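Collaborator request log, item 7. Partner lab (contact: R.S.) asked for a structural prediction of Crotonobetainyl-CoA:carnitine CoA-transferase CaiB-like acyl-CoA transferase to inform their binding assays.
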Amino acid sequence: MVAIMNGIRVLEVASWTYVPVAGGILAEWGADVLKVEHPEMGDPQRGLVTSGLVPAGGVAHMVELPNRGKRSIGLDLKSAEGRELLMQLVARSDVFLTNFLPAARTKLRIDVDDIRAANPNIIYARGSAHGQEGPDANRGGYDNSTFWARSGAADTASPDELGYPVTQPGAAFGDVLGGLTIAGGISAALLHRERTGEALTVDSSLLAMGAWAMGASLAAAAAFGIERIPRYNPTDAPNALVNTYRTKDGRFVSLVMLESDRFWPELTTALGKPELITDERFVDHAARMRNNKEAVAELAALFGALTFEEAQRVLGSGRGAWAPVHTPREVLSDPQVLANGYLNDLKDANGTPFQLVPAPLLFNGEPGDTRRAPGHGEHTDDVLGELGLDMDRILELKIAGTVL
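Returned to partner:
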């Protein structure tokens, strides 16, 4: 493992997933990431077990996902002693990471000027739902609302015939993408500080991430004055080789063979109908575009006569870009996922095994160090000891409710 962030200390005052994911990634890359949680309540993400969203007795995967590899301290930031301890931690940190809203940052005195008063050289990174400016700067949000719905992604991804906008593909879909972006921004800010001595403020938001992800569609809407890029269902795709086809056992394969003149002859031959190569309706790309529904119907019939496994064997490895449409569970055993180490086997604090996807970057061919998330306040004693507090003083703070 190449611990590229070895020696970097990150102080995280954040909850839920979007911004904590950034801290988890930095921990995976070797940083010492200290998560500050309320002594009693902790990160509200931990409450998903009691809400029934995570099976009781199972792995709290939505805690593990964003909090991998961190240490946790239970600290009451509203108390005078808690704030004093926080500022001591700020003074020895390289990065302060938060997703608290402006009003909360002001109330707790953890905004940029407050933190920089204790450490002028610290990188101050904040993630939000809607950005730091504008009428909604003080509003919170989640990825399914701000990243997915407000960015135009939900509208663009939803077929007209469905009658309602689809939700994002899964929990934390926008959160993990946004967290990776923040981790990258922090990395760039650390490099800038090393080269110039200047400590930067790093900002990102779920809305910014959604707009970035929808950048091509937004550019097209602006360029052509259209509401959205036209949507097509599988029966009338303009390019029959950029489409999804159902197999006879109800599974699907996805083709993205953009150079249709190159791949049409090879594909139709492999599917057992080479006469489609010289069929005047499909003789070149322009002809296939004019007769797109017929071209789609021909391929649909050919794939519909094959099982999912047969279709994958026919497509092979050399006939353009294609992929099986996998379920999440099938991804767990995908040979490419396993061969490249895109899934790690871990055990939580209770020794229960689970699997977690590491950050999608390798350094010198090696992934980061993916470790379990900490228990609530698991490292409080260790961290306070590092600040020079003896056990008697730590016990006093525990009795007072200042720390966990």
